[in-house]
Amino acid sequence: MDAKQKLVVVGNGMAGIRTLEELLKLAPDLYDITVFGAEPYTNYNRILLSPVLTGEQTLRDIVLNDEDWYARHGIRLLLKRKVVGVNRARRMVLADDGSAVPYDRLLLATGSKPFILPVPGSDLDGVIAFRDIGDVNLMIDASSRYRHAVVIGGGLLGLEAANGLAARGMDVSVVHLGGSLLDRQLDGGAAALLRQSLEARGLKFLLRRQTQAILGGDGGRVRALRFADGEEIPADLVVMAVGVRPNTELAEGSGLHVNRGVVVSDTLQTYDPRIYAVGECVSHRGTAYGLVAPLFEQAKVAANHLALHGIGRYEGSLTATRLKVTGIDLFSAGDFAGGQQAESITLADSLGGVYKKLVIRDDKLVGACLYGDTADSAWYVRLIREGRRIGALRDQLMFGEGAAGE
């Protein structure tokens, strides 16, 4: 009997391990599997880092696959090992401890890296990102010893970090370069309601502010933030949440084609057909996805090909964002900004805390932005994805699936 083929997975996060879960359903005995993880933990749910920060959950609560799961499936798990090179000619993966592991198929799931603003003082003690359990532990520790926290970035991660630190008793200011919060997920109307709601909970927002420098005090720890206009605010902790970049260092060093992500085909193969890539490190048809649903769709297709079924195709994803920021329901999908040749239908009830905006073009629903009431979000996504003409539905569209008799 032939020896099993060797599959090596670089990255122990949600995309890589979901691919393995899908593969094990299709072909449980095809490969000897080795997984490299740079962190000291098994696979956990990054989306639930915020409840860990607020204290509602613990690391144990958000673990997706414990050590028993790896052992049960015969997977060799190498934690606290960073892969530093891939020798494609010899088909070897090289780790930072000097070890080398051979592969027949390689899956890159290296995720993304937080972007750190290149301003003076960004390397001070107390300046961190919000990306993994290590960052959360640093934030929890800081909240027990310090008072003033500044979060740079008014996107989803920034708001979740701010909410978590405020829940732990810190005085929190959110600094954002743009004029409204969550500007990639919400339009102006929904963003204004969100800001009012969060201000009522004690968060402070400094919009249209550019960070010029982070200032240090005695002992090399951060003490303040200075803006481009010269104003300074106190800061004992600075959390950078200004976005992420695909982690392509390993792929580039291995000579793979990289263009704002590891470039993959519809079968999730890189330019080297033995090497697959999934998740936030990937660029597919010019798009890098940071949401979970597209990553899981990629995982299914990659697993199909690794299992030698050879029929799956990934053709891209409709990005629909369902967010829960401090108990407030938010949702957006498609082209919710509208623009030329588009018609917007809006319902705004500021007292009831509900805002809905639907965007129609050529008698088709092309975008939706919902705040406070997201019950019909799945229906709206279906209409956008199917691209069917709404015709007689138009008058009932705003009132949901039930009213439309769907």
From TrEMBL:
SUPFAM superfamilies: FAD/NAD(P)-binding domain. It comes from the Bacteria. Its EC number is 1.7.1.4. Residues 6-302 form the FAD/NAD(P)-binding domain. This is Nitrite reductase [NAD(P)H]. Keywords: FAD, Flavoprotein, Oxidoreductase. Coiled coil: none annotated. The keyword Flavoprotein applies. One of its GO terms (molecular function) is nitrite reductase [NAD(P)H] activity. The lineage of its organism: Bacteria, Pseudomonadati, Pseudomonadota, Betaproteobacteria, Burkholderiales. Its cofactor is FAD. InterPro entries: FAD-bd_OxRdtase, FAD/NAD-bd_sf, FAD/NAD-binding_dom, FAD/NAD-linked_Rdtase_dimer_sf, Rubredoxin_C. Residues 320-387 form the NADH-rubredoxin oxidoreductase C-terminal domain. Belongs to the FAD-dependent oxidoreductase family. The keyword Oxidoreductase applies. It comes from Achromobacter agilis. The gene is nasD_2. Gene3D superfamilies: 3.30.390.30, FAD/NAD(P)-binding domain (3.50.50.60).
